[in-house]
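Researcher: Structure for this, please.
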Amino acid sequence: MMKLFTLLTAILSLSLATVSAQKSLKPVDLVYPQLDSENSRWIFFSSACRPFGMVNLFPDTRVNGDWGSGYRYEADTIKGFSHIHEWQLSGLSVMPVAVPTGKKASLFADYSSTFSHKTETVHPGYHVVFLDRYAVKAELTATSRVGFHRYRFPGKVNAAVMINLNGELGPCVIKEGKLHQPGPRTLRGSFVDGITRRRPKDFNVYFEIAFNADIKSLDKDDKTGNYLVSFDTPAKGELLMKAAISYTSEENAAGNMKAELPGWEFDATVKQAQEEWNSMLGRIRIEGGTQQQQQRFYTDLYHSILGRRTISDANGAYPDNTGEKSLVKQIPCDKSGKPLFNQYNFDAFWGAQWTLNTLWDLVYPEISEEFVHSMMQYYHDGGLIPRGPAGGNYTYVMVGASTTPFVVSAFQKGIIKENTEEIYQALKKNHMPGGIMSRAGYEHTTALGGGLNYYIEKGYVPFPLPGATYGFHQDGAGMTLEYAYQDWTLAQMAKALGHAGDYGYFMKRSQNYQNLYDPETGWIRPKGVDGKWYAPFDPFEANHGFIESNSAQATWFVPQDLPGLATLMGGNEAAIKKLEQSFVSARKLGFTSGNSHSKELHPEYSRIPINYGNEPSIQTAYIFNLLGKPRLTEYWSREVVNTAFSGLSPATGYNGDEDQGLMGTLSVLYKIGLFQMNGGTEANPVYQIGSPIFDQITIELNPKYYPGKFLTIKTIGNSDKNRYVLSADFNGNPVGESGLNHKELAKGGVLTLKMGDQQ
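Model: Predicted structure, token format:
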């Protein structure tokens, strides 16, 4: 009996210690950066960086191509530490080496080294690896625009750093690399990111590199174009290196270093980086759940704010490539000379209406405001609000005007209050012929592939589109659905600003989805230019009229008018039955496209009716809510979380195309139980309530934008079994089925959800 008591006491003590340790962990400590890194792409993984930083520094284990390159967990060889991992940008790869006596020449072409994850440490803002070949410990951290390296060499060796300024690196072919030595411990130089299929112009990158020791020699290999920087044996075997980036000039690269990292305190910089991440991640505090659930949550939140990156310098200079010539321009500054906002490089906001709109606007409204200003800067420079700019230029990635809902959401929530008429007119231009809706994916020189003229004249975009292929994603049915929703969001802003004529015009266009509903099949179906249904038609066949999806997934892309869609289907009950059947079928494949974007077209996965591995159908669990069946939203949203967004390993995580934090953001929203079906674009936007997985979620509200201090979501009796919301009240007042509006939540308070297993 005594032994049993002792054992139970030990177990209880261990459990209490685990709970205590869990409570003492900061949000930044819970992030697992290696999540899904076996499936990563160039822009996917991050470690030594700051939120939205220009520099994103980490080891590259594969360097060829946009997909499947960068840090790939399953690879065991490091080919360099590069500073730029961004949408269609790359560059400045370096590698510490111990030069074998008499073998300097052979090192230029082969300097990679194996490593082991057993000796690796990865945290937000900090990355450590041990290079087996050279017995060098490499530590990495960063400010926003400066990478900071600490290399520990073994004993008395020929310490050196290889600098690679040419060749294939991620999405780009690096060329014209050159550097010079202006001082005993300083290097400066530049290179060019060659054009890609998505980025149509060469892009200049400049840098300054500083060491804490005098350079002994600087050698260039003409064949590879690589540079070897050699040193005497560093004091205590330690060599420090700082590398600052600029997209405007060498002088501004030096200015970025001076502004952000004038000293050499490596450990202090690591601490500052982690404090900055913790400050951002700490805007949401969670209680309850398992430690793995908490780790996954903060990893998801980390992804939501790490992907998109700054391209302007500390002084506000930025590259503008929207015209015929590459120009350097200046962001407006305040009276003290500080830039009013940053200029950004980013992948499409395709799917942001169900992700970034809600999370950023509520938790990081200052970021939403900055991105709107950045988009308007592109408009001032090139005449269009972009849908995914790279290298200071338009890429025309994906289709439609996906940034319209993002801007309108920020406007409706009071985040954007100035120059609203100019912003509206800029958005409207994108929705008219010649605007961004007129261009298909990566259509750089024409404005025909979007089929907008057909959409306006016929009420839909034909598939196939008559004439030549002008770009990618010329999938008329998918285009029609997106245009109709985006038109609806623009109509809401038109109404708010008093443009009654525009409101009526765009509202009429927002009903164009009805022109492609086929009552015989019960699905949205492509039509040809002659008005005839596309045949043969298979609703589960991918990419035949639908963008990275099939008809079964895309049919539900009517967030602006779900009651109207349900009516076409025969009423709410018929629509609910159809959607639930889709979920039951999709669950057999884990609600995903096979854990990798590359598997989406595999026969086994391409026919999935609901896909939480790509954006077109990620809203579907919340459709039940708006059709009068909240229990089904609560059930299926939990099933999606448990199946698709709960893993914590390099082999799984985002189930397809994470893009730049969109799927991580979606995971956060499903786990806190707040969602906005129309992207928060109506007047006084409404939040639908789902099924939070934690006991308590506390969101810190930004006082510059919102009157409240905290929004707390408290669940009573919550468990995986008790996933249903039996009652909801906000600050003691019952919450109706429609949810809560933004003005209420912005005042702060407590949303209390009583949970149970009753369906």
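Researcher: Any notable elements?
Model: DSSP finds 20 helices and 33 strands in the chain. The first strand starts at residue 48 and ends at 49.
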